[in-house]
Amino acid sequence: METINYQNFRIEAENICVDYNGKVALYDANLRLKPGQICGLVGMNGAGKTTFFNALTGFVNISKGKIRINGESVRSAQKDQTIAYVPQNEGIDSQFPISVWDVVMMGRYGSMNIFRSPRESDVQAVKDAIERVDLTDHLSTPIGNLSGGQRKRTFLARAIAQRASILLLDEPFSGVDIRTEKLISELFIQFKNEGKTILLSTHDMIHVREFCDLVLLINKTVVAYGETSEVFTPENITTTFGGISPDSLFGPES
Amino acid sequence: MELCSFLTLDSFIKDPLTHDFMRKALLMSSLVAAVCGFLSSYLTLKGWALMGDAVSHSVMPGVVVAYALGLPFSLGAFIFGVGSVALIGFIKQKSRVKEDTVIGLVFTGFFALGIVLVSKIKSNIDLHSILFGSPLGISLSDVKQTIFISLLVVILLSIFRKDLMLYCFDPRHAKTVGINVFFLHYLLLTCLSLAAVVGLQSVGIILVVAMLITPGATAYLLTDKFDNMTVISVLSAIISSLIGIYVSFWFDLETGGSIVLAQTFIFLFAFLFAPRYGIFKLKKLFNGYK
Prior knowledge:
The structure holds 2 protein chains of 2 kinds.
Chain A: H1 3-6, E1 11-20, E2 23-33, E3 38-42, H2 49-57, E4 64-69, H3 74-79, E5 83-86, H4 100-105, H5 120-132, H6 148-162, E6 166-170, H7 178-193, E7 197-201, H8 205-211, E8 214-218, E9 222-227, H9 228-231, H10 234-240, H11 246-250
Parallel strand pairs in A: 3-7, 3-8, 5-6, 6-7
Antiparallel strand pairs in A: 1-2, 1-4, 8-9
Helix pairs in contact in A: 5-6, 6-7
Chain B: H1 2-7, H2 9-17, H3 20-46, H4 49-69, H5 73-94, H6 99-121, H7 127-132, H8 140-159, H9 161-169, H10 171-176, H11 181-203, H12 208-222, H13 226-251, H14 255-273, H15 282-289
């Protein structure tokens, strides 16, 4: 049986291609991640990081290749609440009239009835998730009144409430305060111990070294993939960023 | 003395109610306003004002053709409303023209087709009432249609209230947790077309977009809670309709225009004096006096 090969992998993307109206955004990309692995997704703006996320969540269709999530199709991963997506702060409307509680409750929608009326277990899951990101004092605060870090934690809580086994995080560290950064890194260690798989995109090279077991360097396709210590070399980074030397990337301004 | 009795609030409100056509107009316009106001929260948050304008204008040829063929006007309007959106999507995908340009050219094209058809068909279609609305002259069959469509939209919006909110807020998350985003997109479009159809009876095709966006915009300035926003939006829409009809009755003004102007004034009031988001922040002024 072919599916047996996939059983060890949480995410298995094989030669995937995505194009928007004939424009290629990503081609021949491969990725395999096991439970408990944290992988950094590194590339320039427009290199296809968000497209990669979109393909894994099923938000865009792949034109070629194959994606298996826990050995099953993306469609059944959606039904099973397997993947949680944590958007970057710029990706959401911060002026939307909605409270922290309501955002986190959205993590439960997929497993609720058609009216999305919360059961006792949903309420408990939301409470617990908000407690883990330390926002219990802000249950009814509109997201517009939160700081960037608190807003990031709200969406992280939504992913926790969803009880997903795979977390996709778009720039989790951009625009957050030190306290949030510390909290997120502690959560990452907990997630890892719980056997969750994490794929995160970042511009910050230091975070890659700090958290990521694996790194995926992309520029429309995979430039390099493997253990961070082996793959995250100045040469590979230079190739990924189109010839810009890593010195300028690691410079004091970054 | 005559003037004084005219000016009392009591007779201002009660006198028009002695007329059958006024009672009907007030009831039907309130219903239509409630439906449009309900939908308005979603459209303003989704950023679909231009889409609302497009759909409401595009229903014109549908209304004319339906009248000419003796079909329910809502059916024709609905087909052309949804058709215009499909056409906008198709042209956008197949050409390099930007979306707002495509929206603009499609809906004006449909609208022009409607006007040309009216002049050619020349049946008993009253162009004026289509363009500017005729809440005072609404027929019995129109009343039935309006009630049916309004109930349908309210039921659909009520069932999918939370899903639509999620769709407006974060469609990517909706998709990720297995919610049918494609369905929600077309559900919202369907409700938009249907609301435009009932709304045009009150204020006419040209102004119906105001019914679909102004109450939502007003409510958006007054609250940070989605449920409250919906309630405020519906209430402000109903109040505007009542004010508009009364004012047009007493001062002999165009009814549709009066309703929309009432909405605009309520919006301006919120814009200036909303507790948190108004220019003068009423709350701060009050607190200052304490």
